[in-house]
From TrEMBL:
Pfam families: Pyr_redox_2. PANTHER family: THIOREDOXIN REDUCTASE 1-RELATED-RELATED. It comes from Romboutsia lituseburensis DSM 797. Its EC number is 1.8.1.9. Belongs to the class-II pyridine nucleotide-disulfide oxidoreductase family. This is Thioredoxin reductase.
Length: 321
């Protein structure tokens, strides 16, 4: 007897957990597979102020813990494994992990994406404590403080301008000798009195005891090292990194339609080009990557996965053959 799941969700961020919750509540035999830490990027966020209804104990880890509890409460199974290959063309999808093989009738890919890192000492330790990769998520926490925004492309400069709504000063740190964003964006940024620019510069180290207190810069042309400390009255400052995102979709390359960067292409029902395979959250092509849109994607994906299963006239409760 071979165990076959009705629904397999790859990834346990907000999109994956939402998908798993909807699957389990619909009485689908549901499995959620996660290779790393449950929760995705949101678990590095200490305050989640922009998720509707998230007021008390509004931290990323606590929000995810409640989502996991809901999923398990309705009967979703969860395993830790790294999926290294997938056969998605047959009616029964086969996912090959480092620890085992998993078979399911429908699959929701919710593998997310990861921000490209600076690789500077202190960056990892101070992520969520002054180092951020999302202006929309964390900008409000730096009201009236100084902020450094790393990157010179469209997203970096636009995010930097967004941060001027909160911070008293935003400095773009660009490793090139000029901005690489569109001219219209550059002109708007340079007209903003709160915007400043550091060219030919990289961040060498981020220093702080529990929060960002000092940033060490290096001039790429001269090799000059400059240390910048937070104002004594402020006690801290922000470092926002906008040097790109990496979709976690490598194993699906040449199996599913993606854009040139690697984001999975779906329709509004979260359907991919392969029947029975859906994608949700940050790993798909979309305009806004936030917890609220990720959970929405997960719900939509599973509702349509359920419709797909029903259209195939399968027994949705008894999933063993």
């Amino acid at each position: 007897m071979e165990n076959i799941y009705d629904l397999i969700v790859i990834g346990s961020g907000p999109a994956g957990l939402s998908s798993g919750l909807y699957g389990a509540r619909a009485k689908l035999k549901t499995l959620i597979i996660e290779k790393g830490k449950t929760g995705g990027q949101i678990v590095t966020t200490h305050d989640v102020a922009n998720y509707p209804g998230s007021i008390q104990d509004a931290s990323g880890p606590k929000l995810i813990a409640r989502m996991v509890e809901q999923c398990k409460g309705f009967g979703a199974e969860m395993v830790k494994d790294n999926i290294v290959d997938a056969d998605l063309d047959s009616d029964i999808k086969v996912l090959k992990g480092e620890k085992g093989e998993y078979r399911g009738k429908a699959v929701v890919i919710a593998t997310g994406c990861t921000p490209r890192k600076l690789g500077a000492p202190g960056e990892k330790e101070l992520t969520g404590k002054g180092v951020s990769y999302c202006a929309t998520c964390d900008g409000d926490f730096f009201t009236d403080l100084e902020v450094f925004a790393v990157g010179g492309g469209n997203s970096a400069v636009e995010e930097g301008m967004f941060l001027t709504k909160f911070a008293r000063k935003v400095t773009i740190v660009q490793m090139e000798d000029k901005l690489t964003c569109a001219r219209s964006i550059e002109e708007k940024a340079k007209e903003n009195p709160k915007m400043n620019f550091m060219f030919n510069t990289t961040i060498k180290e981020i220093i702080g005891d529990g929060i960002v207190e000092k940033v060490v810069f290096e001039n790429r042309l001269t090799g000059e090292i400059t240390e910048y400390e937070a104002d004594e009255e402020d006690g801290t400052m922000g470092v926002f990194v906008f040097i790109g995102l990496i979709p976690q979709t490598e194993i699906f390359k040449d199996k599913i339609d993606t854009d040139r960067i690697g984001y999975i292409i779906t329709d509004e029902d979260m359907k991919t080009n392969i029947e029975g395979v859906f994608a949700a959250g940050d790993c798909r092509v979309k305009t806004l990557r936030q917890v609220v849109t990720a959970t929405s994607d997960g719900a939509v994906a599973t509702i349509n996965a359920e419709k797909y299963l029903e259209s195939k006239d399968w027994n949705l409760v008894d999933s063993t053959i």
